[in-house]
Amino acid sequence: MADLIDYLQFVLAPQALNGLSLGVAVVLMALGLTIIFGLLDVINMAHGEFYAMGAFLALTLAGLGVGFWALLVLVPLLMLPIGWLAERWLIARVFHSRDRHILTLLLTFGLGMILEDLLKLVYGPNTLRPENPIEGGTEILGMFLPNYRLFLIGFGLALIAAVWLVVFRTGLGAMVRAAAFDKDMASSLGVPVRRVYAGTFAFGVALAGLSGVLLAPIYSVFPTMGRDFILMAFTVVIVGGMGSIQGAVVAGLLLTQVQALSSLYISPVWSDPLVFGIMVLVLMVRPQGLFGRLGHA
Amino acid sequence: MPEATSLRTLSDPGRAGPVSRLSRLAPVHWLALAFLAAALGFAAVAWATGNGFYLRLATEALIFAGLAMSVDLLLGYTGLLSLGQALYFGLGAYVSALVLRDVAASFWLAMAAALLAGALAGLIGGVIANRVKGVYFALITFGLAQVAAKTVYNTRALGASDGLIGIPQIRVGFGPLSLDTADPLSFFLLVLALTVAAYAGLAYLMDAPFGRTLAAIRANEKRVPFLGFDAWRYKLAVYVLAACVAATAGALYPMLRGFVSPELMFFETSGNAVITVIVGGVGTLIGPVVGSLLLTALRSVVGSWTEHHLIVVGVIFMLSVIFLRKGLVGALLARLGRRGDQGRAAR
Questions:
Q1: Which UniProt keywords apply (chain A) (predicted)?
Q2: pTM metric for this prediction
């Protein structure tokens, strides 16, 4: 019995909590992706590079003496115009084409390529390690947990709740959902659809940048850092149902637990194939994912 | 383009004879012939100057052109974007490498084994992927390839992250004759011949009723059943066909490089194939080939003065998506078509 409690306390629970802190981070990224898809029907393949941009911006600004708390506000604000311009200059160009799903996917894929190489050009290919903004740890039920991870879980959950409230409980959110549901009707009711589209894309990009700021102290910062992470975020969005906020949250927390526990019981190297395998299975059984779409919510 | 070909053959079916036979050849095939002539010219120059490096580079471009053709069968002809075609390319490469290293140093056995593996994997992958459409198809193909790539990456028996090395160079027998894969010129000519054969076979098939049905699926899948065709079956068939093309192209890779690595299956490989098709010309079989040679040359040239060639490739790719929807070959064909129309009007 004592062995079992020890096992739960020292092996299983820390792993699950590690999984949770990663899960919150993945959900933040998936949230941006799923909002962009739910409204614009655009698969943003450059999302991982926007995440990396956020991390590098944070690093640069921190080097100039900007504090961590200011970064949490400043970096998303700086990412907003970048996202806005990307939507106006690129997405909007092919938005009314018949093949716009494929074309926007290809455009954002190209954009991601260019951004990644630009980051390499500016910062070099090396891995950078930012300072931990919240030092120390806390003992909970005999487990020692780094404070920064606890902060990440709390802040992330609050942010996810805030996004959900804005989308489903405010006038702005209603406007955005109306534009997603029926753009002609929304437009004739006075919703500035074009600006809503650009704004939503910018918002999703800002969320990606914010994830970059939050995760930089845990994982190192390097130009291709978005790649592995974006795969996970895409998987989460697909399993949860493209465009669904609830789906992204549920699938994000679930899949990162699968990842954390499978690396404990099987082997860390097999957790990725397992997670992708689950995605393929879900798509086979329920092609639209576990939850519905934002536009139909 | 298949549309142009069919219009031409429909509008003047009566004129027979050798002259009209040649004139019936669609402009896109003339482009392919010009390309073949250029490739042979290149081979002659490279051989005369003893430049094995460029021959090897061109061979690699042709091998990846096979992968791009496979992407184009799905995207250009059927309207299905596959983000995981490297799965079949890598599968072919690994099967071929294993056969050559552990079973027998036989070209034909390696090719047959890769083809069989590609067909089987394509059947399984096709049944799974064809359950969904549009972006979901793109994402499920991406997911399938990711599962396969990570599995290979983690399997020690397949060399894990190092891949397989020490693939022997072989002699390829054609009855009494044989050529050596170690010789850059012979192997280039062999791969060129296989590419031409693949082009001709696929071009014929895409002009045949099979290809017309695919075009109908691309145009409006919902109406295809009303014409009496089972769209699902055709989509599965073209998926398996594309997998076979990718696998046989992949089978050539270890013969060229002497090794295979899990990178061949990764998303970069699939993504590059999609870029190749878009830049070269989607919906024509010569487009992927032209695109592959162009991008390989570009990477080699740009790569010699900066390591940041992704920016250049990315910009070209995005410009093609926005301004040249049919790629370079499509733009060229449009020009040729206009000139042809003017010529006919003048007469």
A1: Amino-acid transport, Cell membrane, Membrane, Transmembrane, Transmembrane helix, Transport
A2: 0.85
